């Protein structure tokens, strides 16, 4: 299962963090350490790395990094494409998503993520269905 | 760049975020945040009429601050208030806040539960979904108790809409993980399986996750799901990418769901029903076939999604481990990936192949890729990939390729990344031990390890090499030689000094004959490192020096000078000081005989799982096999940890001086008693120092000159204790009567072997009692001292040992036993008993010692064989070649005088050790009699009271065939047979 999803910019600032397992004591320093490790990697390195007793799968989009912590039962490539699917879904909703879209619409970004991954497991991968509830909400407020 | 927030934009939030982004320093940012927190706090406190919009804005700000790495300790109440809002957006933000900033212990949880309850009953499915998502994210125990009952209904009800079903599945999964007992059993469990057939792939995905977790707990209940999962999988893999529309991802139909289904199937063994099994194999073949098709898109997303399914299929194939053809196909496919330009694929291929290497069907196929993997180790630019290559090499290693793989790993180690060196060192050490070409190679490999990566060689590794050298007599001379050479390097690692110090201390005498490594040279070499070493290493060297005093009396003066040196006698380090004082005192007061007894060579270590392996498993718990994990759980005190602690050879010499002092006239240190107890409580491994516990004044017997412990078979008592080791604790408590003790018969052969060439040692040991023996023989007389040590803290009552000579032995041997003065052995105490034996005629069986005593109310009985063999009454004879050949010819005339055996060597052939063994056995060796210098010729006399039997021996080793030819000629048929039997076990 997924342990957490982090969205981080090139400066190492967390822009979105969702934890599916909560016992992480000292969240901030562990998070920093994870981010530092991922940011230090070069492009020719593989997208997975062992970290403590779990694995990190990460993918970089221009200045944004998506970092997912998974246990050893997860399929790394599937997670890698899950990240891409999240990005595509954000793209579809925000229309060419960038860091600022996430920052200024944190609630929406979380909501979309919630529709895709819940309790550390994939719920829905169909982009149209993922965006259905949030579109309903947008219509209601307009 | 102005960015307009979508939907209902919040100006205040935008301003705050911009402010933070404009902060030039961390301090400025902190200041701005503190200001904002104060602002929000006051708003929450003061303004009771805060409207939903404002609450939402502040909650968003708090979330943002949280993401910046600050802990938020307020705002929860406001978030809870938002839950009861009628506006979807406000409700949503309330749930979001609670889900991200969870606080399960909070008193608010009851309010949250109430809000969730309300929403679960709401009309709007979006509200229900929010509530379910919240449960899925928090899933506390209270929630489980309050809400679990409702969820299964939602999942199986026909009226529930798909999105709610999906959320409900993952929600139940969460509650099941939190507290399985709250999840109600019932017929819903059967109906949940049918969700695998649901039209809606989103529902199937969520349901598969739920079923996967439930099935891991109770596989039987969900067995019907296997068939459903296979048919669903089959429909997906055979569909075209247009069939599944929105669930097709870059031309791959439902990749995530396929992965999940394949995972679910890994909970179960291969289906028994042949039709079902055929169908599954078809699916797997289709997936493997698709990997060979040209890609439908050049995008990496396409290949990733396709390969995600492929790797999971391979995992399933490996999990089933029953279809050789699929396993080999999988291996070939991974072989292709090993050279793929995508780093990710190379990484994953190495990882999966590591699993394949452990299957008997594909192990050979994996080995074919060894060269590629070695190249990867050398050329990969990513350390994570190199790490996987190391793992795979480790996994594919067996007897056939160990030498090459270990050599490659060693050469890689010189440049390896610091992060993986320690693990590599462990792996090399394990492989070298597991698949030794021979033990000299093993010793070379470990010394190389220390030379190349000394800093990363953990204690376990060098303890282990010492254990092995001590247990294998055939490498001791070689080990002494190579450590001596290694120590000559100008810069040598401290670990090398430790190994060198220990090995030379035990076996330095084996190379002392050579001028270049004379005792003095050995000592000076070691001492030249002394001042560069840390205190523990110096302590070890001091122990080496006292051993040298025993081994090489000729340099005693120089050694005592070192001990006497003020640097040591007044060292600030208490341990060093104590060692120096005690060793000095020991060397001054004790006679050479006492010294030889105290500093006798270490007895073999009990065989057990390598402590290095234990360390590796500890380091990488995820890769260790489940068995080990299970085992660790079973015993509250994992045996592996005990081992590594008790196993340390250094621990034993450290305690050596203590019992010594008790015997010497010097005042006994206070800790001696506690140390001794510690030694006992440390369990079987503590067997090592026991020889030192015998503070017996008796001089060591003739065999004392024999410094090599020739046997690598563990002593009989250690067999018992290692067998007990995994559940050591349990056994301690249920220790039945003498049943677990080895019966005389069982240990007879081991006794023959172990004690045939030595006179002292531990005869028996179990959880309660340890029996040590010291013996001396002269002519046809022998005297055995038996030492009974009570290992418990309770007394043994009615302690009565008796010795009997069964059958024919009664007429061949006289045994006199001195009764014990006491019949109670107090806890922790040791009593001694002397037994005199007289050999009247030659004999086969050994006298039997039976011990009865009462321990905490139950009677214990132990029967043992005493280590009295015919060859104990042997005296060596010197003669020249002419008289030897005269007698040799004389002794071939009558039948039964000659016995010839041709046999396979049980131990590696080594001239030095063979020599030692024959001398220990009692023969006088006649050099230069046999024209072939490799052969041994010896003579001796068996001295029985009724007759004396002359014995001649010729032993011809054949290195190439690893065989021996043993020829014995004596004047008595029975003696010939018995001696041949005894000798056979030695070579």
From TrEMBL, chain A:
- What Pfam families does the record tag this protein with? Clat_adaptor_s
Residues of the AP complex mu/sigma subunit domain:
1-140
UniProt key word Protein transport: yes
Q: What is this protein called?
A: AP complex subunit sigma
As for family, the record states:
Belongs to the adaptor complexes small subunit family.
The source's superkingdom equals Eukaryota
Q: Which PROSITE patterns does the annotation name?
A: CLAT_ADAPTOR_S
Q: Which residues form a coiled coil?
A: none
Q: How does it assemble?
A: Adaptor protein complex 4 (AP-4) is a heterotetramer composed of two large adaptins (epsilon-type subunit AP4E1 and beta-type subunit AP4B1), a medium adaptin (mu-type subunit AP4M1) and a small adaptin (sigma-type AP4S1).
Q: How does it sit in the membrane?
A: Peripheral membrane protein
Record's function text: Component of the adaptor protein complex 4 (AP-4). Adaptor protein complexes are vesicle coat components involved both in vesicle formation and cargo selection. They control the vesicular transport of proteins in different trafficking pathways. AP-4 forms a non clathrin-associated coat on vesicles departing the trans-Golgi network (TGN) and may be involved in the targeting of proteins from the trans-Golgi network (TGN) to the endosomal-lysosomal system.
Q: Where in the cell is it found?
A: Endomembrane system
A GO CC term attached to the entry = endomembrane system
Gene Ontology BP annotations: intracellular protein transport; vesicle-mediated transport
What keywords sit in the KW lines?
Answer: Membrane, Protein transport, Transport
From TrEMBL, chain B:
Q: Which GO terms describe its biological process?
A: clathrin-dependent endocytosis; intracellular protein transport
Q: Name one GO cellular component term.
A: AP-2 adaptor complex
InterPro entries associated with the record: Adaptor_Complx_Large_Subunit, AP2_complex_asu, ARM-like, ARM-type_fold, Clathrin/coatomer_adapt-like_N, Clathrin_a-adaptin_app_sub_C, Clathrin_a/b/g-adaptin_app_Ig, Clathrin_app_Ig-like_sf
Which residues participate in a 1,2-diacyl-sn-glycero-3-phospho-(1D-myo-inositol-3,4,5-trisphosphate) binding?
A: 11-12, 43, 53, 57-61
Membrane topology category: Peripheral membrane protein
Do you know which SMART domains this protein is assigned to?
Alpha_adaptinC2
Q: What subcellular compartments does it reside in?
A: Cell membrane; Membrane, Coated pit
Keywords (A to Z) from UniProt: Cell membrane, Coated pit, Endocytosis, Membrane, Protein transport, Transport
Which SUPFAM superfamilies does the record match to this protein? ARM repeat, Clathrin adaptor appendage domain, Subdomain of clathrin and coatomer appendage domain
Described function: Adaptins are components of the adaptor complexes which link clathrin to receptors in coated vesicles. Clathrin-associated protein complexes are believed to interact with the cytoplasmic tails of membrane proteins, leading to their selection and concentration.
- Please identify the protein, giving its name as recorded: AP-2 complex subunit alpha
Give the originating organism.
Branchiostoma floridae (Florida lancelet)
From the broadest rank down, the organism's phylogenetic lineage runs: Eukaryota, Metazoa, Chordata, Cephalochordata, Leptocardii
């Amino acid at each position: 299962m997924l342990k957490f999803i982090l969205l981080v910019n090139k400066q190492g600032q967390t822009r979105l963090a969702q934890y599916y397992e909560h016992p992480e004591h000292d969240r901030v320093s562990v998070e920093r350490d994870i981010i530092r490790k991922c940011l230090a990697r070069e492009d020719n390195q593989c997208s997975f790395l062992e970290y403590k007793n779990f694995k990190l799968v990460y993918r970089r989009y221009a200045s944004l990094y998506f970092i997912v912590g998974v246990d050893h039962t997860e399929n790394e490539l599937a997670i890698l494409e899950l990240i891409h699917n999240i990005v595509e879904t954000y793209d579809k909703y925000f229309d060419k998503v960038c860091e600022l879209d996430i920052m200024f619409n944190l609630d929406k970004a979380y909501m979309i993520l919630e529709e895709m991954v819940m309790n550390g497991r994939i719920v829905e991968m169909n982009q149209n269905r993922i965006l259905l509830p949030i579109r309903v909400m947008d219509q209601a407020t307009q | 760049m102005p960015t307009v927030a979508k939907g209902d934009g919040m100006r205040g939030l935008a301003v705050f975020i911009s402010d933070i982004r404009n902060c030039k320093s961390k301090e400025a940012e902190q200041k701005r945040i503190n200001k904002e927190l104060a602002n929000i706090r006051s708003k929450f406190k003061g303004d009771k009429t805060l409207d939903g919009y404002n609450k939402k804005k502040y909650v968003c700000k708090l979330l943002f601050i949280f993401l910046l790495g600050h802990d938020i300790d307020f705002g929860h109440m406001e978030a809870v208030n938002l839950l009861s809002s009628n506006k979807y957006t406000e409700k949503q933000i309330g749930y979001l806040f609670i889900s991200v900033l969870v606080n399960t212990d909070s008193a608010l949880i009851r309010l949250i539960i109430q809000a969730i309850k309300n929403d679960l009953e709401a009309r709007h499915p979006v509200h229900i979904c929010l509530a379910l998502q919240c449960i899925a994210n928090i899933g506390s125990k209270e929630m489980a108790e309050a809400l679990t009952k409702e969820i299964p209904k939602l999942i199986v009800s026909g009226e529930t809409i798909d999105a709610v079903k999906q959320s409900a599945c993952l929600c139940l999964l969460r509650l099941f993980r939190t507290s399985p007992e709250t999840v109600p059993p019932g017929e819903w469990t059967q109906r949940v399986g049918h969700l695998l057939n649901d039209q809606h792939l989103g529902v199937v995905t969520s349901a598969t996750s739920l079923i996967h977790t439930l099935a891991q707990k109770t596989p039987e209940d969900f067995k019907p799901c296997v068939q459903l999962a296979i048919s669903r999988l089959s429909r997906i893999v055979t569909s075209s990418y247009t069939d599944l529309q929105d669930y097709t991802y870059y031309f791959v139909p439902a990749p995530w769901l396929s992965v999940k289904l394949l995972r679910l199937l890994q909970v179960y063994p291969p289906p028994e029903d042949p039709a079902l099994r055929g169908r599954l194999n078809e699916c797997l073949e289709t997936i493997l076939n698709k990997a060979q098709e040209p890609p439908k898109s050049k995008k990496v997303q396409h290949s990733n999604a396709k390969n995600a399914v492929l790797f999971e299929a391979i995992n399933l194939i490996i999990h089933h481990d029953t279809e050789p053809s699929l396993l080999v196909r999988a291996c070939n496919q991974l072989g292709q990936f090993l050279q793929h330009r995508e780093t990710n694929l190379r990484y994953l291929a190495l990882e999966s192949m590591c699993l394949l290497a452990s299957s008997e069907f594909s192990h050979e196929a994996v080995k074919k890729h060894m060269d590629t993997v070695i190249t990867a180790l050398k050329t990969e630019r990513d350390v994570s990939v190199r790490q996987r290559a190391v793992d795979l090499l480790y996994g594919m290693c067996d007897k056939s390729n160990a030498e090459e793989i270990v050599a490659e790993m060693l050469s890689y180690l010189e440049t390896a990344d610091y992060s993986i060196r320690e693990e590599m060192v462990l792996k090399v050490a394990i492989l070298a031990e597991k698949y030794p070409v021979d033990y000299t190679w093993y010793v070379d490999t470990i010394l190389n390890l220390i030379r190349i990566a000394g800093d990363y060689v953990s204690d376990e590794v060098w303890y282990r090499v010492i254990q092995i050298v001590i247990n294998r007599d055939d490498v001791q001379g070689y080990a002494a030689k190579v450590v001596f050479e290694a120590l000559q390097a100008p810069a040598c690692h401290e670990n090398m000094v430790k190994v060198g110090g220990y090995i030379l201390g035990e076996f330095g005498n084996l190379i002392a004959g050579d001028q270049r490594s004379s005792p003095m040279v050995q000592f000076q070499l070691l001492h030249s490192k002394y001042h560069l070493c840390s205190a523990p290493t110096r302590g070890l060297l001091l122990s080496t020096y006292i051993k040298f005093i025993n081994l090489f009396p000729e340099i005693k003066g120089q050694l005592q000078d070192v001990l006497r040196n003020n640097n040591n006698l007044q060292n600030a380090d208490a341990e060093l000081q104590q060692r120096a004082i005690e060793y000095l005192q020991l060397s001054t007061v004790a006679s050479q005989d006492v010294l030889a007894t105290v500093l006798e060579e270490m007895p073999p270590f009990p065989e057990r799982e390598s402590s290095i392996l234990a360390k590796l498993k500890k380091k990488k718990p995820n890769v260790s096999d489940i068995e080990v994990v299970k085992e660790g759980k079973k015993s509250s005190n994992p045996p592996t940890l005990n081992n590594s602690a008790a196993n340390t050879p250094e621990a034993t010499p450290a305690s050596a001086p203590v019992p010594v002092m008790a015997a010497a006239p010097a005042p006994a240190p206070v800790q001696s008693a506690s140390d001794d107890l510690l030694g006992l409580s440390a369990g079987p491994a503590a067997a090592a120092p026991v020889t030192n516990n015998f503070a017996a004044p008796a001089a060591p017997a003739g065999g004392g000159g024999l410094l090599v412990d020739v046997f690598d078979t563990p002593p009989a008592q250690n067999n018992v204790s290692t067998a007990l080791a995994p559940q050591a604790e349990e056994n301690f408590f249920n220790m039945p009567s003498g049943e677990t003790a080895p019966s005389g018969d069982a240990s007879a052969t081991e006794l023959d072997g172990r004690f045939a060439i030595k006179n002292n040692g531990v005869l028996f040991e179990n959880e309660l009692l340890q029996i040590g023996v010291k013996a001396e023989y002269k002519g046809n007389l022998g005297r055995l001292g038996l030492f009974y040590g009570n290992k418990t803290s309770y007394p043994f009552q009615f302690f009565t040992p008796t010795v009997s000579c069964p059958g024919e032995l009664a007429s061949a041997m006289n045994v006199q036993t001195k009764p014990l003065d006491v019949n109670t052995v107090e806890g922790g105490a040791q009593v001694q008993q002397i037994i005199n034996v007289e050999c009247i005629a030659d004999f086969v069986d050994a006298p039997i010692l039976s011990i009865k005593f009462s321990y905490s109310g139950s009677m214990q009985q132990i029967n043992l064989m005493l280590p009295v063999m015919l060859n104990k009454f042997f005296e060596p004879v010197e003669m020249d070649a002419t008289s030897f050949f005269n007698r040799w010819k004389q002794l071939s005339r009558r039948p039964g005088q000659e016995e010839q055996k041709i046999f396979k060597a049980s131990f590696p052939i080594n001239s030095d050790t063979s020599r030692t063994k024959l001398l220990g056995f009692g023969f006088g060796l006649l050099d230069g009699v046999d024209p072939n210098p490799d052969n041994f010729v010896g003579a001796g006399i068996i001295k029985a009271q009724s007759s004396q039997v002359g014995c001649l021996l010729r032993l011809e080793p054949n290195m190439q065939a690893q065989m021996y030819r043993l020829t014995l000629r004596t004047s008595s048929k029975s003696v010939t047979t018995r001696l041949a039997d005894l000798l056979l076990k030695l070579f």
